[in-house]
Amino acid sequence: MRLDPVAVSFWVPTVMLCAALAIKLPTIVRLWRDPLLRAVGGLLLLACAVFVFVAPSTISWTNRVTGVPNFSAPWCYSLLTAFAGSCLLLIIAWRNGLSDLTPATRRAMRWVIGAYSAVIVALWVLFLLADVPVERVRDLDTYYANTPFMREEIVLYLLAHCVAVLVTSRLIWNWIRTDGLDAWLRSGLVFLVIGYALNLVFDALKLTAVVARWTGNDLDVLSTTVAPLAACLSAVLVALGFILPHTGQYLRERWLLHRTRIELRPLYTLLRRAQGSGVPFTLRAGAELRLIRRETFIRDVLLTLTRRLDEAEASRAYEAAVALGHPVERARALAAAVAIQDAVERRGEGAGHPDPTGLLQTILDVSRALRRPDDLTAVRARAAAARQASAPSSAAGPRGSGASAGPAVPSSVTASSGPSPSSGAAAPQHPVASRKPAESNRP
């Protein structure tokens, strides 16, 4: 069976646009109150309708069902005009945000709605005035290029579409050049601007073929074969422009969840040995749920383990880490890791940790410290040397009096001065604690 390249040029973008709509649909349903998301969903649905109804087989079906020859012409022109105007409206609202629309922006949006509504009405009026009795499925634009009223209708829809696409492309291009855009959003905007630019190629090909008929020449192939291929490529790129930011950000979030779970593995393995068992494996649990379970297990075990922490040893480990040249936050993590290892091995006989809040907030840094056994060994050796050096003076006083020479665990090892490192610059932002919808910032 031989595939018709023109027919393929209509159905391939339909599939791509439907895929983009299917990917965005769960977010649209979940955040239905967001008007920009609803607008994106409506725009994609309208784009799907355009390519469904401009397919030659659908054109024949529509004409047959309505009983009006070439009824599909004003119908498809209206859909294409509505799509072009909707794209322009979406970009205007998208860039400014519905809560920050200036009076000038509101006037621009009202002007677009009024102008393109008037164009759609004019398309139907011109069709009613035109005499187009012969059904043309593929070459209506060129066949009726010299027919009164139909000629004006063809030029009107092409110019309206061209103006909307030109302004939309310019707005997106200006947006791309702004600072602070997410990488995935910027990539999606690049695909969108290229896709809309190809719509200009589509309009140019159609107009060239129509003007050729006005001058007595025949360049119908530009309108019937080349233009649909340009429209196909344009729709694919537009669909990618909407799909890429959502898919890329979703994959990035999944990767951050997976990476954080892997980084917590050293601490989880150590505490599982102390507990005797770990988190039960659940096949259907997602990445977020597995991370939450691992964090919960770690914190629960640490709460029971803090009463065996030796504050004096942790303080010496902290001072040793600082003396070895580690930054303060890194030194705290190393000291906490050494103290936890000692508590798991039951080498510590500390009086307990009065406030484990700081320790529970730095589990990611502690787990990272456990991945560097050489650093832990160096800290432990230096702390042991400091303990031996202070042994004669400690023997003269009560046990644990040496801890007063350095910061204790609550203030230096586990206290958190500011935000948790897992959400600061020293570590990736926590992918669970900071989950909030950002759909209105992406295509």
Q: Let me know the number of strands.
A: 0
Provide mean pLDDT, rounded. Answer: 78
Described by strand count, sense and barrel closure, the largest sheet is:
none
- Report the uncertain regions: 394-443
Shape: elongated
Task: Give Rg in angstroms.
Answer: 33 Å
Q: What proportion of the residues form beta strands (DSSP E)?
A: under 5%
Tally of individual helices: 18
Helix content: over 70%
Order of helices and strands: HHHHHHHHHHHHHHHHHH
Structural class: mainly alpha
Rounded to the nearest angstrom, the distance between the terminal CA atoms is: 38 Å
How would you portray this structure in words?
The chain is mostly helical. The longest helix is centred in the middle third of the chain and has 44 residues, at 220-263. 37% of the residues are buried. The chain has helices spanning 5-30, 35-53, 56-66, 72-96, 103-129, 140-143, 150-176, 183-214, 220-263, 265-275, 287-305, 311-323, 328-344, 357-361, 363-370, 373-389, 391-396, 409-413. Helix 4 packs antiparallel against helix 5 (103-129), helix 7 (150-176) runs antiparallel to helix 8 and helix 13 packs across helix 15 (363-370).
